[in-house]
């Protein structure tokens, strides 16, 4: 009886260990892998630059402290240095982004196909939220103040909105060297070539004329 219990415990431990092992990315095989943009080899990421050619500048980006120009229809400016601006990010699975908001400025609903995100408010008051997947489609949101942190789960649609009377600034960290961004409105109404009007009219349960109006700005 004791032996049977011991075997069960061993098998449970092995199963749990295997599960945890599979749940994490592989450990790096070297100190770093600075992206070699000139290499003709294409992998999931970039091949490594010869370590003898690596410099401190490969890990450096200047200017994230500079406010962006928010005089645009969204009232926001996004400064998003990825592996293309910081080649040393290659294989590290991280990147950062600064967003400046005019009063009432927004970062419209979007998703990152390759990353989760942690947002920190540096200045102002920002409403942040995300929507869960089908079938619930539950909105989870909160008004954030200076020093507050909010997490956006991997791949889910999320947004930010400056709900204060003054300018706002946030900085975020993402779990990918190149997280990508899919702005929902741009993707749906601004694809090239355009998605068939009948498809969108049925999907949004609106008249064709409304779809035409929404697609019009992207066709200029």
From TrEMBL:
Entry-linked InterPro entries: Cupin_1 (IPR006045), Germin (IPR001929), Germin_Mn-BS (IPR019780), RmlC-like_jellyroll (IPR014710), RmlC_Cupin_sf (IPR011051)
Signal sequence, renumbered to the chain: 1-17
Domain of life the protein comes from: Eukaryota
Keywords carried by this UniProt record: Apoplast, Disulfide bond, Manganese, Metal-binding, Secreted, Signal
Pfam families per UniProt: Cupin_1
Any one of the GO CC terms: apoplast
Domain called Cupin type-1: residue spans: 62-212
Gene3D superfamilies: Jelly Rolls
Transmembrane segments annotated in the record for this chain: none
Cell compartment(s), UniProt: Secreted, Extracellular space, Apoplast
Positions that bind Mn(2+): 110, 112, 117, 158
A GO MF label: manganese ion binding
Annotated binding of oxalate, by residue: 112, 117
Cystine pairs: 33-48
PANTHER family recorded: GERMIN-LIKE PROTEIN SUBFAMILY 3 MEMBER 3
The family this protein is said to belong to: Belongs to the germin family.
Protein name: Germin-like protein
Organism (species): Salvia splendens
């Amino acid at each position: 009886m004791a032996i049977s219990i011991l075997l069960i415990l061993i098998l449970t431990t092995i199963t749990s260990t295997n599960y945890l092992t599979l749940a994490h990315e592989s450990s790096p095989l070297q100190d770093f892998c600075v992206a070699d943009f000139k290499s003709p080899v294409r992998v999931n990421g970039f091949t490594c630059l010869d370590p003898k050619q690596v410099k401190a500048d490969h890990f450096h980006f200047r200017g994230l402290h500079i406010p962006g120009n928010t005089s645009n229809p969204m009232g926001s400016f996004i400064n998003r240095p990825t592996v293309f601006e910081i080649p040393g990010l290659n294989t590290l699975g991280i990147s950062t982004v600064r967003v400046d908001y005019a009063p009432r400025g927004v970062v419209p609903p979007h998703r990152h196909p390759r990353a989760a995100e942690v947002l920190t408010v540096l200045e102002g008051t920002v409403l942040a939220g995300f929507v869960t997947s089908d079938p619930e489609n539950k909105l989870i949101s909160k008004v954030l103040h200076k020093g507050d942190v909010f997490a956006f789960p991997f791949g889910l649609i999320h947004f930010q909105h400056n709900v204060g009377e003054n300018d706002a600034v946030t900085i975020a960290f993402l779990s990918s060297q190149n997280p990508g961004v899919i702005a929902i409105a741009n993707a749906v109404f601004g694809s090239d070539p355009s998605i068939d009007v009948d498809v969108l009219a049925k999907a949004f349960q609106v008249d064709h004329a409304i779809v035409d109006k929404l697609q019009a700005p992207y066709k200029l």
